[in-house]
Amino acid sequence: MNNIEPFIRDINDFPKPGIVFKDLTPLLNNPAATASCLQQLLTLVGDKPVDKVVGMEARGFFFGMLIAQALNAGFVPVRKPGKLPHHTLTETYALEYGTDSLEIHEDAIKPGDRVLIHDDVLATGGTAAAVCKLVERLGGEIVQCNFIMQLDFLDGKARLKGYDVGSVLTY
C-alpha cells in the first residue's frame, strides 16, 4: 500500500467555517496505512543521520515517535506553554490574528544534535518556523522538516527557506 491519500478524510467547516480540515484518524485506524505512511516518511529522510526527532503538539506526536523509534533517535515533544514540566525555552510566533507560543525543554537538544522536525501538516509554516528557531537556539542542526501533507496553496514552505522540506502528500 503506497497511496495513503484515501485514509485522509476531509472535514468541511472545521474548526471554523471555510476551513477544510485534513483528518488523519482513518489513517491511524488502519495498521497497513500507518505502516505505509511511516515508511514513506522514513524514505523522505533517506540516509541522513538523525539524533533527535522533534514532534509538534499534538498530531506531530503520532508519527514523530514512530520515526524516532525507527531511526533509533530520541523523541522531543514541543508543546503549548505550561504543558512541559521542566525548564523550557519559549518561542512566540505570529498568527493571522494575534500570536501563539511553543515550548521545548532546555535540555532536550544538545549542541550539534542532528534534528528531524516532524508534523502532520505544513500549512502556513508558522509553527514549523518557530520550532526551527527553538531547535537552533539550543544548538541543534536541522536535518529536515518533514510532514505527512503539505498545503501548497498556503505557501508554508516559503517560511522554511534554507531547510530541507519534504512531505508524503501535497494538496
Automatic annotation (TrEMBL):
Pfam families: Pribosyltran. The keyword tRNA-binding does not apply. Its EC number is 2.4.2.7. Pathway: Purine metabolism; AMP biosynthesis via salvage pathway; AMP from adenine: step 1/1. It catalyses: AMP + diphosphate = 5-phospho-alpha-D-ribose 1-diphosphate + adenine. It is an enzyme of class 2 (transferase). GO terms for cellular component: cytoplasm. One of its GO terms (biological process) is adenine salvage. Keywords: Cytoplasm, Glycosyltransferase, Purine salvage, Transferase. It is found in: Cytoplasm. Residues 32-146 form the Phosphoribosyltransferase domain. Transmembrane segments: none annotated. Catalyzes a salvage reaction resulting in the formation of AMP, that is energically less costly than de novo synthesis. Homodimer. This is Adenine phosphoribosyltransferase. The gene is apt.
